[in-house]
Amino acid sequence: MEKNFCFYEKFSKFSIGMILLVFSLALMVSGFTVLPVFGFIVAIPFFLISVYFFRAHLNKDCQIE
Question: Are 43 and 31 in contact (CB under 8 A)?
Fold first, then answer.
């Protein structure tokens, strides 16, 4: 497998996880200030999804042996 393919797969996994993590942190901050209940209710699933993307396994060809 090409190294470029693994780079793009790792980068997309990391970038999706970071975007969701930043979004969940922003909702947590809004949960403290503007939307107390709604911010926390929506932030927790986004945080869990970001953890899933950080821990998701790569393609078998890109795994470190």
Answer: yes
What is the longest distance spanned by two Cα atoms in the chain?
48
- Report helix, strand or coil for 8: helix
Return all residues near 4 (Cβ < 8 A) that are at least 6 apart: none
Contact indicator for 16, 56 with CB cutoff of 8 Å: no
Taking the C-alpha atoms of residue 2 and residue 5, their distance in angstroms, rounded to an integer, is: 5
Which residues lie closer than 8 Å to 35 by C-beta, 6 or more apart? none
| pTM passes above 0.85 | no
Q: How does pLDDT run across 8-23, given as a tens digit for each residue?
A: 888 888 898 899 899 9
